[in-house]
Amino acid sequence: MAGTPGCVRAAQSAWWWHEHASPVVVLPPASDGGRQVTIHGKPAGTAYSLFDVLDLVHRADLPAEDRAVDDPELIEWQGGGPYDWNSPNTPDTANE
User: Fold this and answer.
1) Which of 51, 52, 62, 84 is the most exposed place for a label (fewest CB within 10 A)?
2) Alpha helices in the chain (DSSP H)
3) Residue 53 maps to a domain
């Protein structure tokens, strides 16, 4: 891209990101166990379970039914995967 104007490089970079990034991003768990979800870069809501994430995906008309929740082309899980809902600062009480 040497010699390419900055605005063209930025547009090309944005195109690559748009074409290759997961449309759904689930952020790390908060102290209450909820995880913020963005869809196409916009806040979609807070999920407290995998079912909440799937509901947000369905509401956004994304094809969740034919993709696994661990498909990185659909969902990027940050700070834990689809079965991690406790904040690192919150003790796990599921086994008590």
Assistant:
1) 51
2) 6-20, 50-59
3) yes
CB 23 within 8 A of CB 40: yes
Cα–Cα distance list, 55 to 31, 46, 88 (Å): 22, 11, 25
Q: What is the DSSP string of 27-40?
A: PPP-TTS-EEEEET
**Residue 10 included in any domain:** no
Which residues are bridge partners to 35 per DSSP?
47
**Would you say residue 94 lies in a domain?**
no
Q: Is the pTM of this model over 0.90?
A: no
Task: Please tell me the total count of domains within the chain.
Answer: 1
| Percentage with pLDDT > 70 across the chain | 65
Question: What pLDDT digit, counting tens, does each position of 48-83 carry?
Answer: 999 999 999 989 888 766 677 888 888 999 999 998
